[in-house]
């Protein structure tokens, strides 16, 4: 790596707060309406990446546990009341869940902060934001409909029904555990599906608490099942099992590709929300202060452990050095440290393995000719903390410009003109999101139309609304979450043709009376 003395120091680490005195959260699995341990009684623990102490423990599911959960969901779908309920009845349950989340928001936020390492303030925002997702899904439970065709002749009426697809396997990641589950589960339930949920083994607490809320809200036994454990034991069977009708996964592109391949053997439907290498594209005529703040927010929110992270900035060559200096200065003001500290904006990295992967990517960038302009090192302190990092002199062909790093690392790339910016933006395998900063609406629309991305922000970044669909192009995934189509994704269409009156089109002569 370059000489550390030539790199401006990042923000000093905030002092550790006194962690709340509490026993570790004792999570359980929920299968067929019963809270249970694993078949062999084994459990695993999760330690706080910021503090080092045990935060929570969970049953380590066996293949028998997964089989039981799938069978419970299958029975609940084939013979239970949930798929047959009126939309208004399912909506009432979803609204009750939303109220339950409100009531337990602080408890859930604290556990999420301790398990993920994210600032408590951000965990609070994530948990409380989920309320809106459940409320929106409840509205779709009442409004999702099929079609009717009265244009097929006087003796034919065509009806297109929407029916729940069946049993859905939901696999969620560690970075936004309750939020991403809430982008999936309420919409599957609104459609009338039953589910088996596998949370990340690093961040299972809020999923278990949500299951407690679901039970109290009146979700029937078997409709939602939660199985905790590792991917090969729990996640892989959800992709392979013939009784799972659909798989919805959020995580890395590598794992998503693997699970999609396994699911394809049974021709089951898949929804995959995967990685991103999301560009913010900056033109000289932008609102400078707003842009600089959004760039720093975009890459350091959730410590960059975010599929939507603005981890690369494409900046016009005429302002590239001014931009770099401004962003470095702004980034040095971002408070890093104990996620329980009220001033914290960047907490701990989720695991030692993740931290080492990030550092390895920084080293590869430097070896390829890029230059560290800020940070680039681990803090010498208790906990898994990484300095906010900015990498300059990045060329589009470098790995650091193309590969998802999933950490607080910003790559700065210069471009010559609008078409050059679009070309560079599209020179990755990903296409999740992007942003463009300019006061010229022609420039903004040209970029928005030209960039391969499922979401394009114009003069803003990382805004989101339940009404707007979310998903990516290319290796960033398959399908969309949220929006009015979210419930429809968990349905199958069925065509019903109703003949009216005597049949006139006999293939063979009509039998004599």
Secondary structure topology:
Layout: E1 25-26, E2 29-31, E3 34-36, E4 43-47, E5 54-59, H1 63-79, H2 87-103, H3 105-116, H4 120-143, E6 147-149, E7 156-164, E8 167-171, H5 177-182, H6 185-191, E9 194-198, H7 205-217, E10 224-226, H8 231-240, E11 246-250, H9 253-264, E12 269-273, E13 279-282, H10 288-300, E14 312-316, H11 320-331, H12 352-367, E15 371-374, E16 389-392, H13 399-402, E17 409-415, H14 418-425, E18 430-431, E19 433-437, H15 441-450, E20 455-458, E21 473-474, E22 477-478, E23 491-499
Parallel strand pairs: 1-5, 8-9, 8-11, 9-10, 11-12, 13-14, 13-19, 14-17, 16-17, 19-20
Antiparallel strand pairs: 2-3, 4-5, 6-7, 7-23, 12-22, 15-16, 18-21
Helix pairs in contact: 1-8, 2-4, 2-6, 2-7, 3-4, 4-6, 8-9, 10-11, 14-15
Keywords:
Ald_DH_C; 15 helices; Aldehyde_DH_dom; single chain; alpha/beta; 513 residues; disordered N terminus; 20% strand; 35% helix; seven-stranded mixed β-sheet; Aldehyde Dehydrogenase, Chain A, domain 1; six-stranded mixed β-sheet; Aldehyde Dehydrogenase, Chain A, domain 2; 2 domains
Can you put this structure into words, describing what you see?
With 513 residues, the protein is α/β, with parallel strands linked by helices. Helices cover 35% and strands 20% of the residues. The chain is built from 15 helices and 23 strands. The chain has helices spanning 63-79, 87-103, 105-116, 120-143, 177-182, 185-191, 205-217, 231-240, 253-264, 288-300, 320-331, 352-367, 399-402, 418-425, 441-450, and strands at residues 25-26, 29-31, 34-36, 43-47, 54-59, 147-149, 156-164, 167-171, 194-198, 224-226, 246-250, 269-273, 279-282, 312-316, 371-374, 389-392, 409-415, 430-431, 433-437, 455-458, 473-474, 477-478, 491-499. A seven-stranded mixed sheet has the order 15-16-17-14-13-19-20, sandwiched between helices. A six-stranded mixed sheet has the order 10-9-8-11-12-22, sandwiched between helices. The active site is at 273. Residues 35-496 form the Aldehyde dehydrogenase domain. This is Aldehyde dehydrogenase family protein. Pfam families: Aldedh.
